Every structure is written in C-alpha cells, then in structure tokens.
Amino acid sequence: MKTIIIGAGRGRRLEHLTAQEPKPFTVIQGKRILDWVLAAHRANGITDLTYIGGYLLDVVKQNYPALQFRHNTEWASNNILQSLWYAADDMDNGFISTYADILYQPGIVAKLLASPADITIAVDTDWRTRYRHRSLHPTTDAEKVTVAGGRIARLHRAIPDNEAAGEFIGVAKFSPRGAQIFKTYHQALPPNFQFEGKIPLARAYLIHFLNYLVEQGVEIKFVTTPGYYIEVDTLEDYAYAETYWQLPNPQLIASTV
After folding, report:
1. What's the pLDDT tens digit per position in 170-187?
2. What CA–CA distance (Å, rounded) separates 34 from 18?
C-alpha cells in the first residue's frame, strides 16, 4: 500500500507561518505537521510515500529526500482533486490519500487498512466539539457526511449540522479496484465538467468527486475516529493544536475549558 500526500497549496490563512516554508512544515508541539502525517503511516508499516507538491516544493525535496515527488505545476490555479491526479501513475496497486495540513493518530490509518471495501474514508464523529473553537472556520466549511446502511450517502458542506454523521478528515483508502474506479470515473469527465453545475473541475475539492461517485452508485464505506483529529488551516487552528494535540482526546478535553 502506498500513501499519497496532497500538499501543493500555499496555506495563506496561516499568514507568516507559510511565508518562507510550505504549510505542512508548520510546527505543532515540536514537530512539523508533515512529520506527524508520516509517523501515522509509518507506524502502520507504510514506507512507500509520494508527496504532491507545488508551493516551495524544492524546500520539501531538500528536507525529505526519502519521499517520492510529483509536481503540481498548476497549484496556484487548481485544487485538491486535480492535485491528487498528478499522482495517477502511483495509484494502481492501491493507495491511501491524505491532506498534508491535518493531524491524526496512527489508529485511524490502521482502521482504513483493515477495511475490506474498495473505497473507505475516515470520518470524525466528534467534529462539532472542535468547531466550537473555530470562529474563523464555520461549520458551513466542514466536509460533512451522512450515512445509510453502513455506507456514505452524501458528502457536502451544505449538509445541516444536525443531520451530519461526522466530517471527512481528508484521509481515504482505495484498494486496487477502488483506484481503478477512481481513475475510470475521473478520466471520463470532460474538461468543461462542473460539479453541481457550478464548480469547475480545476477548482474541485476531493469531496466533490467522492460525492459524485456516490451519486453514480459507487459504494463508499467509512471508518470513524471520535476526535483525535485537527485541521490546521488558520492561526486560530494553529494555537488550538499547539495546546490540545496529543492529549488523550484533544477535542473532548477542549470542550471542557
């Protein structure tokens, strides 16, 4: 199993922290976010790791020579889905994809690896607790999911909070067949395709494509984590992660302060 890390963007909401270093180099409790991500996968025996970079890619290459690299040359004008596609040649034997600006535990990677489904995503079931501490990142930005019959029914930011089973944390596993499904459906999209009739292919997030797959009848399963996950997107998130990451359950403890 290979892990593909999607880390091409600038991360402007972290302001000065990404002025001279890539967003995944942001240090949380003495360790870069990228190191936390790598540790979660290496703890599960995954050593085949590809990094999709764009902004300051040379800096990542200099610091992590053991990684394989794919260069998203259009990183300033495209988004997560198209960024992931730069690693299409790395997908055929199955892969885990992960955002590069998130903190999570090795246990959720283990759950993904144990899933027999062709496509499985990781979902935080305690997501609302964390959003109580995110004034700069409202729940309308959360990559929420609904479920039915043990599978994903919908992935969409517009899902009402009280209907959401959780939030997609940005980590997903594709078996070899799941990878083929991903590639087949992606390759079939015309260049002028728009998700939901308004989101161009170049600007689509991964959740837009995953929800599209669900709408086409593709089964997507899920595994859960009750917290133990933090997205670092703003300076507010950075301060939160510095305080609460690595506690027994950072979300639950934070909800009591």
Report:
1. 999 999 999 999 999 999
2. 14
C-alpha 201/C-alpha 193 separation (Å) is: 6
At 42-99, the pLDDT tens digits run 999 999 999 999 999 999 999 999 999 999 999 999 999 999 999 999 999 999 999 9
Cα–Cα distances in angstroms (integers) from residue 201 to residues 54, 81, 140, 214, in the given order? 18, 8, 21, 17
pTM above 0.90, yes or no: yes
Q: What does each C-alpha distance from 42 to 47, 107, 213, 256 come to in angstroms?
A: 6, 12, 29, 33
Tokens of 242: 């510095």
Domains of the chain: 2-241 (3.90.550.10)
Q: Is 6 helix (H, G, I), strand (E, B) or coil?
A: strand
68/48 Cα distance (integer angstroms): 8
